[in-house]
Predict the structure.
Amino acid sequence: MEHTHTIVGHEQNEHGDATTRTIWKTFWILLCVTIVEVSLAFLYLETDFPNRIILNSIFIGLTIVKAFFIVAEFMHLRHEIKNLILTILIPLMLFVWFIIAFLADGDSWRNMRKDLSPGKPHQELPAVHAEEGHH
Amino acid sequence: MDTAVTAKKKWWGGGYSPFNVSYGKLMMWYFLMSDTFTFGALLISYGTIRFMSTSWPDPNSVFRAFPLMGEAHMPLVFVSLMTFILIMSSVTMVLAVHAGHHKNQKDVAKWLTWTIVGGIAFLSCQAWEWTHLFHEGAWWGRNPFLNVDGTVASTNFTNFFFTITGFHGLHVTSGVVLNIIILANVLKGTYENRGHYEMVEKVGLYWHFVDLVWVFVFTCFYLL
């Protein structure tokens, strides 16, 4: 890691132009976000402090921040024209639906397995019983 | 600024690419989009299975080893190193693309070489991690790790882990191979004669995509 740092210093001195500066700035952002993620994970391991749901939301949020910087700066999408940006981003909107639908499906599957597992009282679930008739 | 340009120029009037990029670069973007859906499908199915499981192994007790550290309990340390290596190789790739814009053959070759070194380092890390897990008894269809609540875990955990990190590793491997081919062409002077280094940009897009996928794999398998 020390060696890498000296390369950083040299590069900035030799060609200190705007693009190179943006590249290194993006690198530091990505690195810092990753360090924050790992520190939060350790904080949770040591103290159980941030509630698991809050912690996971922070992780997902920070992941999207990192994804934004990689696509926008490293893949240069931010500097392309609007037509290209939209032709890439609009189809990806499908993911919003995919994630909600499939995770909700997994969740309901778990609830059904829990509720229908042997030894559970049956009268709790009139609705599921009615549906079982169709099978 | 972009909108101003778009408004003045009739982008869809014909005569030039309405996306203002070459055919090859546009197709690389569309390929990466389709690959996004492949990885997305894998990660979402992993999420679905995790949501339907009543309990799941704790990643911090599974991924806790570091090379040469024996039985030391070091969760997240090794995978953070892998993440750092991959981000670093992404940076050297952008620097290669940047040098290509300035038609600086020597710098393109230098940064591409560093990118290849980073890719190989990442793959070596992954090979070590897989070997370590294999020796602990984990593989497709075999899961020695217990759930968080102490119950016996299904093999879903290892199946998804090896399939998704394996598929990502395959992408890194092909990225390294592509980078080596491009480096050979740079050294031969192919792009110098062609007058531009656009091939470096296209392979660069692929390489950053591999880094992008890793960001999500890292979160889904090691953090959540």
Observations:
- Chain B touches chain A through 53 residues (CB under 8 Å).
- The radius of gyration of chain B is 21 Å.
- Chain B has eight helices and no strands.
- Chain B has a mean pLDDT of 93.
